[in-house]
Design brief:
about 250 residues; alpha/beta; Rossmann fold; 8 helices; globular
């Protein structure tokens, strides 16, 4: 029988604890595959903060730091500046990066820090009870917006990729999704490009992943993947928002 898949060596052989249908495990696998394909595992250091992102330590076989909520870019900056030969990434959710960590991510990008950021956007606070996040879309019901998010009451969802793409220091900014196989293949291409940019010393890169959260959304796994396609992607369009000057964005 022909083998069509095997566990990436940069991923620990342990069962996942994530909720059925969650996108975190998919992104973990893509990250591990990219590390393996570049052959950089002995040089990789990750930074994970608070929230569901904190569990990445259980799955990715590399050195890791734990950061305070929102502060992963600051830890990554210090590590990369002290050890420029290392490949440093952060793994952050929307409640972390787009809320308490907004200043950290904006200034790290604006300084052009040579780090790679994996940003999981599931439009909700998944670990702490399903509260409204900065990326919760208009009309979306959460435990703290039971009537649905209103622009008058809670403001508009923040589009991190578009915002960071305006900064001179940012080199590569992309938004992808992990809701179906085609999207996952495209997501890996973007993630691989982001790491390649760091390896080549070209500066700051960020890949935003639209990810389903069936438990937080109160949906089945099938309903959640459909909701990403029908609700999230129209609010957060996929694509490359900034690429190195020698390239043109892929539409």
């Amino acid at each position: 029988m022909k083998k069509v898949f095997e566990r990436p060596k940069s991923m620990f052989p342990v069962p996942t604890h994530y909720c059925p249908g969650c996108g975190h495990g998919i992104v973990h696998r893509l990250l591990a595959e990219v590390i393996d394909e570049f052959g950089i595992r002995e040089r990789v250091v990750g930074v994970g903060p608070v929230g569901c992102s904190v569990f990445i330590y259980n799955y990715i076989n590399c050195d890791m730091y734990e950061a305070a909520h929102g502060r992963a870019p600051a830890i990554a900056t210090g590590c990369k500046r002290m050890h420029p030969d290392l490949i440093v990434f952060t793994y952050q959710g929307d409640g972390d990066l787009a809320s308490i960590g907004t200043a950290e991510i904006i200034h790290a990008a604006n300084r052009g820090e040579n780090i790679t950021v994996l940003f999981l956007n599931n439009a909700i606070y998944g670990m702490t009870g399903g509260q409204m996040a900065p990326t919760t879309i208009l009309g979306q019901k959460t435990t703290t917006s039971p009537l649905g998010r209103s622009s008058k009451r809670e403001g508009y969802p923040i589009r991190i990729a578009e915002m960071l793409a305006t900064l001179e220091g940012a080199t590569y900014i992309a938004r992808v999704s992990v809701h179906n196989p085609k999207a996952i293949i495209a997501a890996k291409r973007a993630l691989k490009k982001a790491f390649k940019i760091q390896i080549e010393g070209l500066g700051f890169s960020l890949v935003e992943f639209l990810s389903q959260c069936p438990t937080g959304w109160g949906m089945s796994s099938r309903e959640a993947t459909k909701w990403v396609e029908e609700k999230m992607i129209p609010c957060f369009p996929l694509g490359e928002f900034k690429v190195p000057r020698s390239e043109k964005p892929v539409k």
